[in-house]
Amino acid sequence: MTFVGFIAKNAFRNLRRAALTVLSMAVSLFLLVTLMTLVREFTIPPEDVGASLRVVVRNKVSLAQPLPYKQLTIIDKIPGVVAATPFTYFGGLFRDETSTMFAQFGVDPVRFTNIFIESKAPVEQVQDWVKDRQSCLVGKGTMDKYHLKLGERMRFTGTFYPCDLDLRIAGVYSGGIDDRNVFFHQKYLDEASGNPGTVGTWWLRIASAEVSPQVTRAIDQAFANTSAEVRAESERAFQMSFVSMWGNIKTLVGSIASVVVFSLMLVTVSTMSMAIRERFRELAILKALGFRRHEIFSFILAESFGLALIGAVLGVGGAWLFWSSINIQKVTAGTLIAFEVTPRLAAEGMLVAVVLGIVAAIPPSIAVGRTSVVAGLRTLD
Amino acid sequence: MALPLKYNLRNVVVRWKTTGSTVLGVALVVAVYVLLEALAQGIEKNSANTGDPRNVLVVRKGSQAESSSLVTREQVRTLQYAEEIARDAKGEPLITADIMTLVSAMRIDLSGEANLILRGISARGAELRPQVALVQGRMFAPGKREVIVAKSLAGRFKNLDIGGALKAGPDHLTVVGIFTGGGSAFDSEAWMDVEEARALFDRDMYSSLLIRAKDEASLAALTNRIGSDKRLALLAQREVDYYKSQTGTAVPIKILANLLGTAMSIGAIFAAMNTMYASVGARTREIGTLRVLGYSRRTVVACFLVEGSIIALFGGLLGCGVAMMIHTYVIASGIMFGTMNFESFSETVFQFAVTPALMVKGLVFSVFVGLIGSLLPALRASRLPVISALKSL
Question: How would you class A41 by CB atoms within 10 Å of its CB: exposed for 0-12, middle for 13-18, buried for 19 or more?
């Protein structure tokens, strides 16, 4: 019998126990990888290709505070700014919904298409949208979810704004990371809400990612000490500010992940000890036959390592398969967007399994090492 | 024949090495589940605690939250002298027109910014909310750019102690007082004078109206009258009912609790199964003896089910104990939790609420894990052939 064969025979001689160990390992690793993915989703929001070229300008007080229209001419003149558009969150309720899980933004259509370059829509549809003030451009995700067709009307009840919107679907866009939004004419919103002369935020495209610090500084300074001071930041920084709002939840998920790892360790160590205790006598015989302590340790190590690895492949691979096959946006109604098990996360999961496999082999090995051959031979179950 | 309960209990204790890790495993599952649920309950308790049953809150029809509602000055004038409104000794109506807005502030550890709710209140605003009590400093003076801040916010954001400043637009609001909201939603707010807020944020309209009704009958009459007046397009409801409906923030935590609870308990079931199988294997001869003594198969099954439940119950008790300890520690050291309120996009501060009902839920959960985990091993034990079982080592 070869060395490997001996270990494999030992590992699977109690098939039920081996299966249960592997399965509990797999479930825990599935959970661990899922939690790590969740933490990643909280810390690093997914972003579009064009994001590094975009800057968001909001009121310094908070997002809820509007910005005056007259700022646009000043922003346009700042060096490094290629195009700027109003970007006003309408936050309306679609049809008779009590909570609508996609956003509607008022924009300047001509300028808009110069800024969101990764979102693609047929040219004639965009032209149609630009021409008709009461029309909108809708993300493919939303079109599919509600089974909407081109030319259909979308009715929104205002929550922040004391007005409603009635929009004709002029075009469908796709190609971004989160294709759910509805874009309509800011001018239409202005008219409907009685021309307040304000917008929600400004979104702009800059010439290159390198000029981003200069541009944001220049914009901040341009409106310092005015009635509407602003904060200009890259799209990424803007998204990160939402992450900061999650507060302690991130830490919470992180600490749960460590509890999961700990309980996982407990289970594996105990099963390994159980398996070894059962064959104390055999191991004593091996010792009597002349096997060295380190050889016996390597038998135990290889066995626990192998079981841990099988569990890891099942758990991590399962997590990867599961999360890549379901449509996370649909399931969580848009709260989670990408939820991607990255190679790095998978590797981290595997690493945890490897360490566990090694750690679990240590206590039983010490127990075997300490027992003399005679005492070992005498042990009963 | 009666169940040898003592036999099971002793077994659990004698084989503490194998049962110990299962007990710990179940304990961790239960602790995580109870603590997460306690967080969700904390958020819900905050909302449920808020408001006075005698008050009516008026917002714009179609508004999801107070912060997105608009009430015009015209509407305020129409309503403020309604006869259903309670009056004070001087005959003044008990009503406040509020402005609710968001201000972003830097966290105390400088890790980032979050939105705070800044509420502008009228002269009666504080009186209508008896849950709120000043604990330090004084009330803001009307007409001045001063603000009072909830204690839990002052501990989470930079420069919000007395004498500090909250930056709002081009101007600063000086912090002159610290209040507690008595475990209500007001614990996540800062208050200032409403007219100052209107000037500062350039707002023509108010966000909401809070009215104290004379009595139950006039409360019903007022809500009906406002709700059915098409010209007003306002929605009136009991203040407590409004806050009770604001529980969307707890939903993701609840989902997380259930997801983790389920996944972790599957892992725990496997662990329990492993322990029980080992236990059955090691006790083959004992089981044979029991059968020879006349215990039926059914009794043997029951006996192992009971043993599995006892192990898991120990785990459950330990888990609840751990959750209780963390809870006590958190309360004693005044740690608060904060997350984003999905209705208003602002920081909401809350506290654990480990309730007895939650603990019972955790224990039931653990027994369930024990029962499922020991079912197959118990069946196996009952099916062992008596003679060969007796012969085995």
Answer: buried
